[in-house]
Amino acid sequence: MAARLDPARGVAVKGAAAKGFVSKGVASKGIFIAGTDTGVGKTLIACALLHGFAARGLRVVAMKPVAAGAVRRRGVWLNDDVAQLRAAANVDLPQAVVNPYCFAPAIAPHIAAQEAGLKIRMAVIAKNYARLGRNADLVVVEGAGGLLVPLGGKLSVADIPARLGLPVVLVVGLRLGCLNHALLTVEALQARGLYLAGWIANHIDPAMAYATENLQALRARIKAPLLGTVRHAQNPQPARVALMLDIRALNARLDAQLRSRPDACG
Question: Is 46:85 a contact under the CB 8 Å cutoff?
Fold first, then answer.
């Protein structure tokens, strides 16, 4: 894919955004990708959203503030989710900015941080997010595990969108138990005053009984819009999944939320 150097920002820009697109917004937008559990397809959906917004001409970049489960290559710890996110973005920024906290063992982040002798600090995450926002029109931030996964001390994953002021897109993995997981997550978002921009149903279990009826139950109970239903695939491709998502509706929700913020210009 062709890339050019954005002279205003000094970063590499690929794809449609490299053809001279200039955002009309005065500030970059961001979204936080939360999941009802681990293994529900957050990375797939985040990459699909990156593809979808890039196809609309936006400069997009991803962030995975905390990742657990990595291998060491050439002296650098590499997480597979982070690698996929960076590949899907069309703005290339250093890995340490995209993923400030990366731990080797695939265990709960607060335990991994404790084992590494580190403390996950929200100020570090916010600083790196701000740098990403200065270099892109949209920042897609992916969480770790479910919404209430501990990060250490009193912090949880939910504190990331709260601190960064991000609307949330919830990925619901359609499998047995998803009704309770999804509705509890929505309640947790509401209790923290977090804005749910929409949710996406991901068919992770092709053998799930009464999947349609479960989906109908969720649609009746979650007030935010369903932004797409992703069919099960053995090897899902983010660019194809992007075609299953209502990017236009999500973009409108993000714009509306951005305009309603107290610090919005106008």
Answer: yes
